[in-house]
Design brief:
Length: about 80
């Protein structure tokens, strides 16, 4: 499952970031934001028409565009 498929209020943990096509700098940036293996993430809000999602990660509130959220693999 990917992060963009998570339902509102649902929590999950990060399994892996992207695939081989994702740049190393983007993976590092996501890890710096708190998206490391095993991190708990909660879906707070989703913009209409799939524009962006608001997430709670390690006590911080973050927004990611839906395309980027679709590259973060999670398990519920």
């Amino acid at each position: 499952m990917v992060l963009s498929e998570l339902g509102l209020g649902q929590s999950c943990s990060v399994v892996r970031l992207g695939d081989q096509s994702m740049s190393l700098s983007l993976k590092r940036r996501l890890m710096a934001l708190g998206f490391t293996k095993g991190s708990e993430v909660r879906m707070v809000r989703s913009a209409p028409l799939g524009g962006a999602v608001q997430l709670k990660v390690r006590g911080a509130s973050l927004c990611l565009n839906n395309r980027l959220a679709a590259q973060i693999h999670v398990e519920v």
